[in-house]
């Protein structure tokens, strides 16, 4: 089963609530929530207050991607704000196993995020504790960047490791996902697709159904994948 996760980083923040309900009404599965701290990455976005504000709008999973260093202190705040999945970068945690435990103690699913140059060896001793692995296909910090093709190889290797573990772990891709590359990304092993600029840049602002066609086009491409 494939899941489409619009990144609200590219939404119109002046109308954030509508932007979220519109992508969900158009068939999106998950809301991807990018948290940047102007320290781990050179950009500053949104925090737990915004997560709490959007929580009542939907039952869909809120997938919080923390680009925050150090990361542990903010995790309970996001859990209280209604996050379902909390993912973090291994470089932003002093004790990766402890951070995973903290996320789970708070009742959330735990994800580990791999930048383009982060080795998969970080999975060696924690794979059995993860609910999600997020492969970055751009360097984190901004929406609208170009997909880095080496991510396909990393997806294949990660899919092999997930299969070998027999565990139910989501394999998410984030960065530069578009209609014209989503099938190839799925063939490489991803099952969850973050897309920010591709979705929120589609259609006319005045059209309440502006996201229907882009999400349908992504699903049509995914349906071609055996
Ligand atoms: O985490 C990030 C960027 O650091 C992403 O979630 C982006 O928001 C994806 O945006 P597009 O590449 O799809 O425009
Ligand atoms: Fe993200």
UniProtKB/TrEMBL annotation:
InterPro entries: Aldolase_TIM (IPR013785), Ribul_P_3_epim (IPR026019), Ribul_P_3_epim-like (IPR000056), RibuloseP-bd_barrel (IPR011060). The active site is at residues 34, 174. GO terms for biological process: pentose catabolic process; pentose-phosphate shunt; reductive pentose-phosphate cycle. It holds the Pfam family Ribul_P_3_epim. Keywords: Calvin cycle, Carbohydrate metabolism, Cobalt, Isomerase, Manganese, Metal-binding, Zinc. Substrate binds at residues 7, 65, 141-144, 174-176, 196-197. One of its GO terms (molecular function) is D-ribulose-phosphate 3-epimerase activity. Pathway: Carbohydrate degradation. It catalyses: D-ribulose 5-phosphate = D-xylulose 5-phosphate. GO terms for cellular component: cytoplasm. Its EC number is 5.1.3.1. PROSITE patterns: RIBUL_P_3_EPIMER_1, RIBUL_P_3_EPIMER_2. It is an enzyme of class 5 (isomerase). Its cofactor is Fe(2+); Zn(2+); Mn(2+); a divalent metal cation. A divalent metal cation binds at residues 32, 34, 65, 174. Binds 1 divalent metal cation per subunit. Catalyzes the reversible epimerization of D-ribulose 5-phosphate to D-xylulose 5-phosphate. Belongs to the ribulose-phosphate 3-epimerase family. This is Ribulose-phosphate 3-epimerase. It comes from Nitrosomonas europaea (strain ATCC 19718 / CIP 103999 / KCTC 2705 / NBRC 14298). The lineage of its organism: Bacteria, Pseudomonadati, Pseudomonadota, Betaproteobacteria, Nitrosomonadales.
